[in-house]
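Researcher: I'd like a structural prediction for the single chain below. Treat it as a standalone chain; there are no partners to consider.
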Amino acid sequence: MLGAIAGDIIGSVYEFNNIKNKNFELFAPNSRFTDDSVLTVATMDSIINGKPFNESYRDWLRKYPNVGFGGSFKNIFH
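Model: Treating it as a single chain, here is the predicted structure.
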């Protein structure tokens, strides 16, 4: 889980600007967590606490609505 979140943060600055080399800054000043990290944590929350996935996803989307969720995903949970 930590690897998935670290990868999300490291890759956040390259999501729409791909690079093709191994020489890049791991944690750039504009690196951030995205909807992928939030959904990873929401999945863990659901499994550990025995909550239905849709309830956990809705709760975490409400906590972090501006991290890159697509419109269709948001519409499902609003």
